[in-house]
Write a structure and sequence with these properties.
203 residues, alpha/beta, Rossmann fold, Arc Repressor Mutant, subunit A, 2 domains, five-stranded parallel beta sheet, 10 helices, 5 strands
């Protein structure tokens, strides 16, 4: 099995080496960068499934690395690590697409769990792109609105309130649509709906 590629952007040499060694032992192929320039050069030259970056680097910024990922390779997940926590920096990181936000010092097992989830999510999203919502809609007789909600549930997994706001309808209306979808597909929750459709266990 091909090892998964991770770019680690950290200006503290001891921490960078320690994290690189740990992730290598976990089965990941780790490339190190100490600043923004090195990180962007690595991203240009190699394919990574995940970037782990400090927000505040001696030379450059993790925010610039994240912006580059958003603009040029949005499929690459990003985990932020920082010792300079603030609500503002957390919000900025999440808005720029951070998958997770870890405060130093953090437990290495927590990082491992976050990395595993990031790669799992990336694999799920690759599969989601191959899901034919129109075919599913025809198979189960979904209305146009039900098909849209089904697609949103699979690709984004939002709460009922978030879907209501996105679709400009009431939360109760979302619940009614979901009940109809569950009945047609033969499931009882958004989780089983997603699992059933992503696993190919549908008509």
């Amino acid at each position: 099995m091909k090892r998964k590629n991770v770019l680690l952007v950290e200006d503290e040499e001891l921490l960078r080496s320690s994290l690189s060694l740990f992730l290598g032992r976990c089965g990941y192929n780790v490339k190190e960068a100490e600043d923004e320039v090195q990180a962007l050069a690595c991203i240009k030259d190699e394919d990574f499934g995940l970037v782990i970056t400090d927000l505040f680097l001696t030379n450059g910024s993790g925010f610039a690395v994240m912006k580059h990922l958003q603009d040029c390779c949005p499929e690459v997940r990003c985990i932020v690590i920082t010792g300079h926590a603030s609500l503002d920096s957390a919000i900025r990181a999440l808005r720029k697409g951070a998958f997770d936000y870890l405060l130093k010092p953090f437990d290495y097992d927590k990082l491992k769990s976050s990395v595993e989830r990031a790669f799992e999510r990336r694999a799920d999203e690759k599969y989601v792109r191959r899901v034919d919502i129109q075919k599913i809609s025809r198979s189960y007789g979904l209305t146009k609105k039900e098909a849209f909600i089904t697609k949103v549930v699979i690709t984004e997994g939002p709460s009922n309130d978030e879907m209501a706001e996105q679709m400009k309808i009431s939360r109760n209306t979302v619940k009614v649509h979901l009940r109809n979808i569950f009945k047609k597909v033969g499931v009882d929750s958004k989780t089983t709906l997603t699992t059933t459709l992503l696993s190919g266990e549908h008509k």
